[in-house]
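R.M. (postdoc): so does anyone remember the format we settled on? I'll just put the structure tokens first.
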């Protein structure tokens, strides 16, 4: 096999595997066909012809190239199969490729920069007690910070919290919302507007959570 060249690999990554691309999902995935997950069908020896799916690779950086081993940094959209991406890159290079290690460094607002090692948590618990670990927890509201917020009146809060849709007095665009009580600011859950400002409860938080 010819030795891989850094400039050629970087050019290939930029020209063919960055931006909007299409992937054929692997058979060993959790996608469903006729009510069964693909990996279940694969274990039964069945193979299903799958259509390519669009994904976006926002950036694809060659971190290092040592002999025939690449280290890549990928920033991609939801639904991207990294193993498939690596396999496709290997095919394009004419040598084949597979993953030897895969590490997710960021997901949404979470990243390794604010991760706490397990050993550190254990040491803190032993020194200060389990309550000391509460400072590392995120509230449910914080986890959904990317969603816009809408607030409800007392009557609307009561309806929404009992699983009923709310529409009176709302003027909302379609989409998902963090829903809060206007009076107390309490996080009620996640709602979705489909049409006509009708706010449907999707996920509710029990009072006191």
């Amino acid at each position: 096999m010819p030795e891989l060249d850094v400039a050629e690999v970087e050019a290939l990554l930029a020209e063919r595997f960055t931006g909007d691309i299409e992937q054929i999902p692997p058979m060993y995935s959790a996608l469903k066909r006729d009510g069964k997950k693909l990996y279940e069908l694969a274990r039964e020896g069945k193979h299903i012809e799958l259509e390519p799916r669009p994904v976006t690779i926002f950036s694809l950086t060659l971190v290092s190239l040592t002999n025939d081993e690449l280290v890549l940094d990928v920033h991609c959209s939801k639904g991207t199969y990294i193993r498939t991406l690596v396999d496709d890159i290997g095919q394009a290079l004419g040598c084949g490729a597979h993953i030897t290690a895969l590490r997710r460094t960021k997901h949404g607002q979470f990243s390794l920069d604010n991760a706490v090692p397990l050993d550190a948590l254990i040491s803190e618990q032993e020194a200060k007690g389990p309550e000391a670990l509460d400072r590392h927890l995120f509230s449910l509201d914080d986890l959904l910070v990317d969603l816009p917020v809408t607030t409800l009146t007392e009557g609307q809060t009561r309806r929404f919290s009992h699983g009923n849709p709310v529409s009176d007095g709302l003027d909302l665009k379609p989409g998902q919302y963090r829903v809060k009580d206007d009076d107390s600011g309490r996080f009620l859950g996640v709602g979705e507007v489909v049409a006509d400002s009708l706010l449907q409860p999707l996920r509710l938080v029990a009072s006191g959570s």
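R.M.: ...and that's the designed sequence above, right after the tokens. Also worth knowing: The CA atoms of residues 191 and 202 lie 5 Å apart. The chain has two domains: 6-107, 140-204.
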